[in-house]
Design a protein that fits this description.
- The chain is mainly α and about 220 residues long.
- Helices cover about 70% and strands about 0% of the residues.
- Helix 3 packs antiparallel against helix 4, helix 4 packs antiparallel against helix 5 and helix 5 runs antiparallel to helix 6.
């Protein structure tokens, strides 16, 4: 019962996090264009609106919370093997550090702290790189634990890598949007699996089909 409740709560949190992530990307993309590199000598950087800042903070809080839930569920399903412990620990540390940097940067920018116009790119670049690393490590863990279908783990990796090309100063921030959709899909699969009594498969049904029709020896 506890495992089912945790899977359901994690799934709901992931769906919400993915949705808010998408909303944050759209809110940032709708703001006036900022500048990149030498453009900043003659053009001001994009200033985040209070709405965009709030969405970014909420999105990262929900994604980090659901990621921690996924790590707990995956480790309990696979067992406390050395590999799962290392992957889970590394993903948690990278995600917490990356999310913390992005949230801190957003909060400081929203509060109008002097010097944030110049410092914000550093917060964003470091935060995004750490979050991408956390997403890849999480995808490896769920693939190893068979908590999610392999195709969904691969989708997480691909959409996480897309974020490396995102830039919150331009519409390239939309390159981060697919990750939000993929994360919401992760939550949907977890919620679906939690609704099946005693379900401990990979979510796609392939494991159940394979066990029901074993290959001939």
């Amino acid at each position: 019962m506890t495992a089912t409740w945790l899977r359901s709560a994690t799934g709901a949190c992931a769906v919400a996090g993915g949705g808010v992530w998408l909303a944050a990307c759209l809110a940032l993309a709708a703001l006036p264009r900022g500048c990149i590199g030498d453009e900043c000598l003659t053009h001001p950087q994009r200033v985040w609106s209070p709405l965009a800042s709030a969405l970014v903070v909420a999105a990262f809080a929900l994604v980090v919370a659901s990621a921690l839930g996924i790590l707990v569920v995956a480790r309990s399903q696979r067992g406390r093997s050395a590999t799962s412990v290392r992957l889970g620990g590394a993903a948690a540390l990278a995600g917490a550090a990356g999310g913390g940097l992005l949230v801190l940067g957003a909060l400081l920018a929203a509060l109008g702290v002097p010097g944030m116009d110049d410092a914000m790119p550093g917060f964003v670049v470091a935060g995004v790189v750490l979050c991408v690393a956390a997403a890849i490590l999480t995808a490896c863990l769920v693939a190893q634990s068979r908590l999610l279908p392999t195709w969904l783990a691969i989708l997480l990796v691909v959409t996480a890598l897309l974020m490396l090309g995102a830039n919150e100063q331009t519409t390239r921030i939309l390159l981060a949007a697919p990750f939000g959709a993929a994360w919401a899909l992760v939550g949907t699969v977890l919620l679906r699996d939690a609704a099946v009594p005693g379900h401990r498969g990979i979510g796609s049904g392939a494991a159940q089909l394979g066990s029901a029709n074993p290959e001939p020896q």
